[in-house]
Every structure is written in C-alpha cells, then in structure tokens.
Fold this sequence. Notes:
Layout: H1 3-36, H2 45-79, H3 94-99, H4 107-118
Helix pairs in contact: 1-2
Amino acid sequence: MTTKQLATLRQQLLVSRRRLVEAHQTTNRDIDQLMDAPRDPEFEEGAQTALTEFTLHRLTDSQRREVEAIDAALARMDEGDYGVCTDCGGPIYFERLLALPFALRCTDCATMEEKRRGQGVLANPGTM
C-alpha cells in the first residue's frame, strides 16, 4: 500500500470517528430530551419508556463499537500492521479498506468467516 493510500485511509477513519462521536453526542442530547418529554397517555408509560431506552441504548452501543474498531485500525496503522489480514497474514487490498477501513480480514477470509457464522460456527469471536 502506498503512503498516499495509507494517508487517504487514515483521513477516512478520522472523519468517520469524528462523525460517530458527534452523532453520539447528539444521541445523548436526544435521550435527555426523550426522558424529559411528556409521555403519550395512550401507551403504557413503562413500556414506552423501556422501548425508547432500549432503542437508544442499542444505537449508542453500535456507535461505541464502531469507534473502538476505528481506534484499533488507527493503532494498527501506527504499529505498521494495518492492511494485514488477522487470519491468513496476507494483504487486505486498498479497495476493501476503502469500503471498510477498519477491516481485519482480507476478502477471502471474511467470506469464509461469514460462511462459518451462517453455519453457527464462530472461529474468532470478537473480530470483524
């Protein structure tokens, strides 16, 4: 991978991270507003509140996981391990990294992992 390609991917990761952090901050403001908003009397208050909290909690978990994946990718860049498949040790090609800049696997290994997951077998839990 060229220095220019690596710089492009680093910039993409940083922009994505900034966008996620800003979205997280907006979500937190939205949560506060929802919690302070008057409740719809047609619905059971407890159920409505629980559904709202669950939905927003899931959104913030997803955002947190993506920020963690981006931070890990930036760390791999700094360590010189970025763009190397965690399964086979081969290269993760630039085109794949453009589409998914925090990818841990090359296309072939990612495909095999998806097939394993589809069969209910998880080879390396916690990796993407």
